[in-house]
Amino acid sequence: MPGDGFTLDQRTFKKLSRLYILALSAIAFSVIVSQILIHKYLDDQESDSTVVNIAGRQRMLSQKLTKETLKLLIVENRDEKLNIKDSIEAALNIWKFSHTALRQGNDSLGLPGNNSAEITAMFQEVDPFFQNITNSSEAIIEQLEENPQISAEGMRAEIATVARNEAGFLHGMDQIVNRFEEEAGEKVRRLENLEWLLMAITLIILLSELLFIFLPAAKGVRGTIQKLLQAEKDAKKMAKDADELSNAKEKSVKELRVLNQAMNQTLLFARLDVDGNILELGEKFSRLFKLRKYGDYNKFSDLLSAKEEERKHIEHLLEDNFRKEWQGEVKATTEDGRTIWLEMALIPFSTTADNWEILVIASDITTRKEAQIEIEDLRQKRFQEKIDQQKLVSSKIIENQENEQNRIAKDIHDGIGQMLTGLNFNLESIDVKQTEKAAKKIENLKQLTGEIIKGVRTATFNLMPPELSDYGIVPALTKLTQELSRLTGKNIILYDKTGYNQRLDSLAEINIYRITQEAINNAIKYADSTHIIVSVSHSNTILSVTIDDNGKGFKTTKNKTNRPDSGGMGMTFMRERIKYIQGRLFVTSEVGKGTKITLNIPLTK
């Protein structure tokens, strides 16, 4: 029936699917097991070959130890003995290390150390010979280190011990090597049997797959073949692209060769030995120093300079850097007196183990260096001009200080002095008998005394306020604004916007105070200001003081910001003081709109 046939086909398909899965699983399992077993045996064989190789090398090393120790019987030269001692010591270290690794195993050498009981017994038999050779060789090394001039007779006993034990050690190691090879052969035979078994299992599985899988999959193979044909076309295309890449590579190589030749002609290139003798010289070097023919100079220093001092400097550079890289500027002087500056790099390299050379690569920086020297001369001249200008400013400052002292002295003499004279005259003229006149004179005396006290306070306050040294800059500026406001009748106010209460060093505080004092005095005397505001604020790095007035202002220019009527050197003194404490001064003013002066002083932590 159709229904029965459809059911049968469906069942068959399910069975085939299960068979496919089972067959594929069997193949995968056999492949994994075979790979694991084969890799295990291959790893064992690899370690076996290493063991056999190192065991065979032990025989060679024992023979080398015997040969080197026997040389000591015929060698008398001290240096030759020391060389033999070094050779014995090197061979002995390898011999001892390999012997221990063969017995106990070593990961770095790939030695497993899982020796059979028979090989372990063989090592025990050969150990006495190994220990005798080791002890005697170490004794020989110790004697040569203590006395390189020791005679052969002094070491004859140890040499004889080494020679006497060599045969026993060689015989024992031959047996050990043979046994290692036999055990390795047994492993190979086991691997062959295992491979035959795995091959049989694989053939059975493949035959089953041929009957139950490959034939039904024939149709799928056709599609795979078509894909392979397409892949072949793609491979041909890739091969064509590879040829194009190869041609491009050859073209790049040619371009690099041309570039190399161009660099040889353009770079200052030389090759020297460690003594500074010229081995090879580039064309540009020859042209720069007008070398007529190769061989005119043997020494590189003679080529570069005709001056003895410069030659010695170049020789010292070569001596100090024949094993390390160096880069810097070198001055050279040709025979015709031309000065040449070179930016030079010394690159040491080793052609053989004991042969070193120095590669010199340089560029001509004469033009740049002459410009630098000229710039340095100009900088020095400017520095000297600045010093001269600073001297002039300093003299002006001293002159201003002298004028200020003279002004204070004149104020005291003309003001306080005359008032004291008047006070003394009035005191002498008082007649206690004339009560009314005496009372009037006393009232005048009180007024005069108040004027004297006010003048004294003004003079002393202008000299140095005690608040500055006792409490710091903000209290001192507060006192300054209050006193000047009281004495002048101007509205002078201080605002501490950020509550600054830290102390600066005394030089910074006195300069900030004097600059602020000068700015307020200028606003009072020359700007006709009625309101002056002093603001103090700070951040983590800057303390800022601003003096802002509502005076008549003045016109500022790009190169000059001094008031034309600011008392001559007043603004200059302010700028010099702010420079002295590493600060900055900004002046903003406009005619009819007042003046704003800002001080920014860096705060150090």
Automatic annotation (TrEMBL):
- Spell out the reaction equation it catalyses: ATP + protein L-histidine = ADP + protein N-phospho-L-histidine
| Stored Gene3D superfamilies | 1.20.5.1930, Histidine kinase-like ATPase, C-terminal domain (3.30.565.10), PAS domain (3.30.450.20)
Q: Which SMART domains match?
A: HATPase_c
Q: Where is the Histidine kinase domain?
A: 512-605
Q: Which residues form a coiled coil?
A: 228-262, 361-388
CDD domains given in the database record: HATPase_UhpB-NarQ-NarX-like (cd16917)
Record's keyword terms, sorted: 4Fe-4S, ATP-binding, Coiled coil, Cytoplasm, Iron, Iron-sulfur, Kinase, Membrane, Metal-binding, Nucleotide-binding, Phosphoprotein, Transferase, Transmembrane, Transmembrane helix, Two-component regulatory system
Against PROSITE patterns, the record matches this protein to: HIS_KIN (PS50109), PAC (PS50113)
Q: Spell out the SUPFAM superfamilies in the cross-references.
A: ATPase domain of HSP90 chaperone/DNA topoisomerase II/histidine kinase, PYP-like sensor domain (PAS domain)
Q: Which cofactor does it need?
A: [4Fe-4S] cluster
Task: Locate the transmembrane regions by residue number.
Answer: 20-38, 196-218
* Main localization (coarse): cytoplasm
Q: Where in the cell is it found?
A: Cytoplasm; Membrane
Topology class, membrane: Multi-pass membrane protein
EC numbers listed for it are: 2.7.13.3
Query: Which residues does the UniProt record annotate as the domain PAC?
Result: 326-377
Output the PANTHER family linked to this UniProt entry.
NITRATE/NITRITE SENSOR PROTEIN NARX-RELATED, NITRATE_NITRITE SENSOR PROTEIN NARQ
What biological function has been recorded for the protein in this entry?
Member of the two-component regulatory system NreB/NreC involved in the control of dissimilatory nitrate/nitrite reduction in response to oxygen. NreB functions as a direct oxygen sensor histidine kinase which is autophosphorylated, in the absence of oxygen, probably at the conserved histidine residue, and transfers its phosphate group probably to a conserved aspartate residue of NreC. NreB/NreC activates the expression of the nitrate (narGHJI) and nitrite (nir) reductase operons, as well as the putative nitrate transporter gene narT.
- The name this protein goes by in its record: Oxygen sensor histidine kinase NreB
Q: Which organism is it from?
A: Autumnicola patrickiae
